[in-house]
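User: Here's a chain of 417 residues. Predict its fold as tokens.
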Amino acid sequence: MAELHVFVTAAAVVLVVAVVSAKTTIEPCSGSDSCQALLGYTLYADMKVSEVAALFATDPAALLAANALDFSAPGAAHRILPMGLFLRVPTRCACADGVRKSVAVRYAARPGDTLATVADVVFAGLASADQIRDENALASADPDAPLDAGRKLVVPLPCVCFNSSDNNLPAVYLSYVVQVGDTVPGIAASYETTVTDVMNVNAMGSPVAAPGDILAIPLPACASQFPKSASDHGLIVANGTYALTAGNCVQCSCGPNSLDLYCTPATLSGSCPSMQCPNSNVMLGNVSIHPTSAGCNVSSCSYGGFVNGTITTSLSAGLQPRCPGPHQFPALTDPPTTVIHDSTYLPPLSAPGPAEAGGVMPEPGSAGSPVQGGPFALPKVSTAKGPAGSVSEAPSMDKSRQILPFLVCCLVFYLHM
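Assistant: Prediction complete.
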């Protein structure tokens, strides 16, 4: 019986060590530069789009656009999203204290909140109780002690930039919290990448990840070439998604079959600057095609960035060997009302095909542009070696709280036998 007591105690110690350590990719940085990134977030309750957006200090329309949900539908910001739904939350990834963090969000504690529940439930494991405690200088705070209702907390969230590239190609990085039952091969397959790429990006010594670990997943993207004077300089859009810019006057999309950025007028703002190309009557997003015996004359009005409150555009024209087909927009879907998948992530789209230059670009919702389609997910990334990061330890308190009571019961039972 003594040997059994020792075995159970030793097992408890090993198990506790295994469940309280969680890994997250850390990218050293310097300066005040930032990039666009995505946070993988699983809803802990039914929530309005506007509530999720407020939690992460982002725009409701931008949240919908990042998930290819219909951001222009009337009342879209007040739609109720179901518990368990996995969303990609757009954020700015900034350099703070020598490492990459998204712009820290502020959270007001509610009755019954603890540091542990704020970290593990409200923010779905994107931050740990210890990280929130350190960020708010609460050195002696018990993670399970109730917080004063209304107390303002700064919540640091993980992200990486890696120069917004993967294998020298444009990329947006998704911070993904590993769930119970996940495997690295399964995660890689879900995002149509490889185990090797996931391991390289996250500086992993083996293809093993524990629940609560946070992996950086590179997603192929369309990059802009806007000047530094533009407020949206560096705009980059993950394949299969949309981004809103110029005060929600312009929507830019990427894919699904092209990695070229396409921007058209949006209908979300009541008052927008002129979107007409200079010295012409052509509007932003318009493409004209004229077949000739020598090839195809293609002219288009393209977006060039938001500079000092002005939407800059440029008119380009050229002769191509053949006329391009219509541009395909990522399919927009209505916000779901239920989660019908076995896993919280949504199934992937097919990988992007060869880019199609030019083409007629209809507005989402118009003929030739699908408004309703299958669930959104993210496409294939390269199999080659990605940028290296470092790995740090961060507590994940919810797993230990779930398992420790069971271990204590087992110890008490065996000690009294």
